[in-house]
Design a protein that fits this description.
The complex is a heterotrimer of chains A (about 200), B (about 400) and C (about 170).
Chain A (H helix, E strand, L loop, with lengths): L6 H17 L4 E5 L2 H10 L22 E5 L7 H10 L5 E5 H6 L20 E3 L6 H18 L33 E2 L4 E2 L4
Chain B lengths: L4 H4 L9 E6 L11 E7 L2 E8 L7 H5 L7 H5 L7 H16 L5 H29 L3 H22 L8 E2 L2 E2 L5 H25 L3 H7 L7 H6 L4 H6 L6 H4 L22 H24 L19 H6 L1 H11 L11 E8 L2 E9 L5 E7 L1 H6 L2 H5 L7 H8 L3 H5 L1
Antiparallel strand pairs in B: 1-2, 2-3, 4-5, 6-7, 7-8
Helix pairs in contact in B: 4-5, 5-6, 5-12, 5-17, 6-7, 7-12, 12-17
Chain C lengths: L2 H9 L5 E5 L2 E6 L4 H15 L4 E9 L10 E8 L6 E8 L5 E3 L8 H12 L2 E3 L42
Parallel strand pairs in C: 2-5, 6-7
Antiparallel strand pairs in C: 1-2, 3-4, 4-5
The chains are: A alpha/beta (about 200), B alpha+beta (about 400), C alpha/beta (about 170).
The structure holds iron/sulfur cluster.
The site of iron/sulfur cluster (SF4) has 11 residues of chain A, from helix 2 and helix 4.
């Protein structure tokens, strides 16, 4: 073939190939904390059978997974754990926030529940519902597949420029920083530090 | 703090060989969100320190902020594998506080649905326990039956998972004949699925060997440690609130069920008790569903306790006024300034609510007596001295539900 | 009059009051007497009146409650497992440092339930073998179920680091 191809055309096609391969075997890491976790189990069991979409291989080791499904509410004690698990997953990785609680706190607007995990983690797909029906979760997996196909690159360049906060506007805290009781969690060691 | 467990040990001669294993809070065999710090000597558990609170979401504080009907949404999420049983329990307490006598139809419907919830709870418990011990098939069978129960709840209330179906003095709406048909169908097909699970597990060498004589709880210890429900009955404490203080429609259904109990007190005994309870529950449902009394499902509108339905709200001035009264935050119910405790027998044990009322339509304090919390406190007692591979068997037989554990 | 009341009246004259509502029977100890009487009273109930199971321990905060005298209350529910009879013992305590004797020497089941009361209300239990927070993080300094603590907290729940996609 005497055609002279630009480098970028070549890369674009490989990007598409890589994304196509990736999207059809998204292995979920079920970060199931509460009720939504049971619906996640129902999605995996015989009636709904998420295996039809290549996502049945739930692995509880973050190292082996591509997509973290946060199913259920996340509370203060759990945030550092969640961030640590997210950091342990290898690239490329995505995050589905399943259910009202994980997305916004849901009915639990209380002192200990985080009002949406997107305040602390980058989230790719939100699933509404309390709990979402299994069909909705499957839809979310399909949406994520589409997102992977559209934006995916072979060396994960698309993540590099997402270096800013993507969550909702931070809530005004009611106390000045120096009076806050629980200081920023250190996700690298999975613990919290006291400020004073 | 729990990581210092080794340091707390006495100067055991083999102390230098001990090591600490962190189990959870995100671990496949816990199924829920809890953490164990195990001090091991080789494979043997020397000391187990549970660490909980990874799902503490302030349920009880919310109970002080929401009124008696709104809080149903939240109690649903407490023991989330049998949500309707929680609703029944909460409203039993509220109705005791307000001194409401339910209509016979409502009593029967609540009984049937609560028993269905019990079956679905036991199914998940057994399925998940079998899954951890290597029997995936039983899990799939159990989930298949659970889907049928979900169908019943969906047909009755519109939500398959968290029905939110009960209201003070009645139910959200009456059921249709479809629901009765679905329940009948479930009762007809359930024995087959049950015997499938029995055949998969009861004589399965691996399952039996891993559960027999593991995690023994004696009768005296069960009483000393406040245990109720199937776990206590597997240790020979024959107490069942459905027999002791029959509530709802149980007084009329006494002949249809027996209390299942065992004396072994090990994981196998707990499994067998749960299997037998499912059969008894199916008997209750079979008898109750054929005898649902006719009549209204809510107590009389005149009593100013129940939410009027759409028809009454939009077509009559009394209905409209009452709807308004029950939904204005400063009106609602007039409660006595007093406190009350009421409990029902749920799948996990005695689920009770201690309500302190201050005269307004909200609870001053809505304390839950959570069976999972009390049962998880047993874990160190049961696990110490066993092998680490017995941990999933013991956890599976305790049926810990994190949302109920931490609230 | 229930049989246990005779026993209690003989042993602790004038130390407690009783009340009842629906089918709940209650024995109350005010903040003055509770630290002294609660433990012997529970022991008498266990050893002489047949209440062999402690099925419930829960805290209540009566701050601004109508006609309340003492602020905190711990409710002990005891059950006779042969007859099914139930009784609630309410022991009151007050600021600044509410303290009550622990029931763990009598019933092992009280262990976690008392820890929860301590976690939520800050009521300390003397002689408790392992009194530390159970549900909230250990760094936490408030007692969330007290009436003067707001439902949404003081903003502790938002005080964690944020991870952006590029750095994770
Ligand atoms: S969104 Fe609803 S079902 Fe899901 S965890 Fe929250 S309360 Fe439970």
């Amino acid at each position: 073939m005497a055609l002279k191809l630009d480098d970028n055309i070549f890369i674009a096609q490989l990007d598409g190939l890589a994304s196509w391969v990736r999207k059809n075997s998204l292995w979920p890491m079920p970060f199931a904390t509460a009720c939504c976790g049971i619906e996640l189990m129902a999605t995996a069991s015989s009636r709904y059978d998420i295996a039809r979409f290549g996502s049945e291989a739930m692995r509880f080791s973050p190292r082996q997974c591509d997509v973290m499904i946060v199913a259920g509410r996340v509370v203060m004690k759990m945030v550092p754990v969640m961030q640590r698990i997210w950091l342990q997953m290898s690239e490329p990785k995505w995050c589905i926030s399943m259910g009202a609680c994980a997305s916004s706190g849901g009915v639990f607007d209380t002192y200990s529940v985080v009002q949406g995990i997107d305040r602390f983690l980058p989230v790719d797909v939100y699933v509404p519902g309390c709990p979402p029906r299994p069909e909705q979760l499957i839809r979310a997996v399909l949406d994520l597949q589409e997102k992977v196909q559209r934006t995916g690159t072979i060396n994960a360049r698309e993540f590099r420029d997402r270096d800013h906060y993507e969550g909702p506007t931070p809530l005004a805290t009611e106390l000045p920083v120096e009076e806050l009781v629980v200081a920023p969690g250190n996700y690298r060691t999975g613990t919290r530090l006291r400020l004073n | 703090m729990p990581l210092e467990a080794v340091a707390q040990l006495d100067d055991a001669p083999e102390r230098e060989f001990l090591y600490t294993l962190n189990f959870g809070p995100q671990h496949p065999a816990t199924h829920t969100t809890l953490r164990l710090v195990l001090t091991l000597n080789g494979e043997t558990i020397v000391k187990a320190v549970p660490d909980i609170g990874y799902l503490h979401s302030g349920f009880e504080k919310l109970g002080e902020d929401l009124d008696f009907n709104q809080y149903v949404t939240v109690v649903d999420r407490m023991n989330y594998i049998s949500p309707f049983a929680n609703e029944v329990s909460w409203h039993t307490a509220v109705e005791k506080l307000l001194d409401i006598e339910l209509t016979p139809r409502c009593q029967y419907l609540r009984t049937i649905l609560a028993e269905l919830a019990r079956i679905s709870d036991h199914l998940l418990c057994i399925g998940a326990a079998a899954l951890d011990l290597g029997g995936l098939t039983a899990f799939l069978y159990a989930f298949n039956e659970r889907e049928k129960i979900y169908n019943v709840f969906e047909a009755a209330s519109g939500q398959r998972f968290h029905p939110g179906y009960s209201r003070v003095g009645g139910l959200m709406n009456d059921i249709t004949d479809d629901v009765v048909e679905l329940v009948r169908h479930f009762v007809r097909t359930f024995p087959k699925a049950h015997s499938d699970v029995v055949r998969l597990l009861n004589r399965n060498r691996i399952f039996v060997d891993r559960t027999k004589d593991v995690g023994i709880l004696s009768k005296a210890e069960a009483i000393n440690r406040s245990v109720t429900g199937p776990i206590a009955r597997a240790s020979g404490v024959v107490r069942d609130l459905r027999k002791d203080q029959p509530y709802l429609a149980y007084p009329e259904l006494q002949d249809t069920f027996k209390v299942s109990c065992a004396t072994g007190g090990d994981c196998l005994a707990r499994y067998l008790v749960r299997m037998e309870e499912m059969i008894q529950s199916a008997n209750i449902i079979a008898a109750a569903v054929e005898n649902i009394p006719a009549g209204p499902v809510n107590v009389d509108l005149e009593d100013k306790l129940t939410i009027p339905d759409k028809q009454a709200t939009y077509r009559s001035i009394e209905g409209l006024i009452q709807h308004f009264e029950l939904f204005m935050w400063n009106r609602r119910w007039k409660t006595p300034i007093n406190e009350v405790y009421a409990a029902t027998e749920t799948a996990n044990g005695e689920l009770g609510y201690y309500i302190v009322a201050d005269g307004s339509g909200k609870a001053w304090r809505a304390r839950t007596r959570p069976p999972s919390f009390i049962h998880f406190a047993l874990f160190p007692h049961m696990a110490e001295g066993h092998q680490i591979s017995d941990v999933p068997a013991i956890l599976g037989s305790l049926n810990i539900i994190a949302a109920e554990l931490d609230r | 009059m229930p049989a246990y009341l005779d026993v209690l009246n003989a042993k602790f004259p004038n130390a407690f009051t009783t009340s009842a509502f629906r089918d709940n029977q209650r024995v109350q100890l005010d903040a003055e007497t509770a630290p002294r009487v609660l433990f012997p009273l529970l022991r008498t109930l266990k050893e002489q009146c047949g209440f062999d199971m402690l099925f419930e321990v829960g805290g209540i905060d009566y701050l601004h409650y109508p006609d309340a005298v003492d602020r905190y209350c711990v409710v002990y529910g005891v059950l006779n497992t042969t007859t099914g009879e139930r009784l609630f013992v309410k022991a009151f305590a007050n600021d600044p440092d509410p303290v009550l004797p622990s029931a763990v020497p009598l019933w092992e089941g009280a262990n976690w339930m008392e820890r929860e009361v301590f976690d939520m209300y800050g009521i300390a239990f003397t002689d408790h073998p392992d009194l530390r927070r159970i549900l909230m993080p250990e760094e936490y300094t408030s007692f969330p179920l007290r009436k003067d603590y707001p439902l949404r907290g003081h903003g502790e729940r938002h005080n964690f680091q944020h991870l952006t996609r590029a750095e994770s």
